[in-house]
Specification:
Elements (H helix, E strand, L loop, with lengths): L1 E2 L2 E2 H12 L3 H23 L1 H18 L9 H22 L9 H7 L5 H14 L3 H12 L4 H8 L3 H22 L10
Helix pairs in contact: 1-2, 2-3, 2-4, 2-7, 3-4, 4-8, 6-9, 7-8, 7-9, 8-9
Length: 192
């Protein structure tokens, strides 16, 4: 699989070199994976959390780079870390709810005239994906949004390939049903 024009073997070499202290390899390693890790985390935890969680993912990865043995691609290894970061974030959020309320960003954007029809559909699709069960969302985002193979997604999610295939199929069914309900005549996306 290629990552932003760079193959996995090269990304894995950069990870191994970075683990031995090569700063240029460390920079190349981050640049090769940062956007995809952000997208993955954006779908798992939300776009507002993705920056911090991406940073946490790479901090954890760099702490563990000296021990990275290369048994899997560095990309798969980093996505496994990102998934754990997202799970940890959700657990923490459940235990410690936010004190301040978050403003309704969609209402604010609509009031400012910032949302167009295409952007509105994109926001809706993002919301529908966010509404999937966690295991289905992880499998769907990894394979359908990021383009990882089913085998890579299975390694990241720590389950058999058949389970990933099943989760993706069910996620597609859930999304199709939700999209039809959302697109039904008389349905207002802003009010549900």
């Amino acid at each position: 699989m290629r990552t932003g024009g760079v193959d996995d073997a090269q990304v894995t070499r950069w990870a191994q070199d970075a683990g031995q202290g090569d700063q240029q390899a460390a920079t190349a390693f981050i640049r090769a994976l940062q956007d995809q890790v952000w997208r993955f985390l954006s779908h798992l935890a939300g776009p507002g959390e993705a920056d911090d969680l991406t940073q946490e993912t790479f901090l954890r990865a760099f702490r563990n780079l000296p021990g990275f043995a290369g048994r899997s691609s560095a990309r798969t290894w980093v996505f496994t870390i990102a998934r754990r970061v997202a799970v940890d974030h959700v657990r923490t959020a459940v235990v410690r709810p936010r004190l301040a309320s978050v403003p309704d960003w969609q209402a604010a954007a609509e009031a400012a005239g910032a949302i167009t029809a295409g952007a509105d559909e994109s926001v809706t699709l993002h919301q529908l994906i966010a509404g999937l069960a966690r295991d289905r969302r992880e499998a769907f985002v990894a394979t359908q949004v990021l383009g990882l193979s089913y085998a890579e997604a299975a390694e990241i999610c720590q389950c058999p390939v058949g389970t990933i295939r099943s989760r993706v199929a069910r996620a597609r069914e859930d999304l199709a049903t939700a999209w039809q309900l959302d697109s039904a005549p008389g349905h207002d996306r802003r009010t549900g």
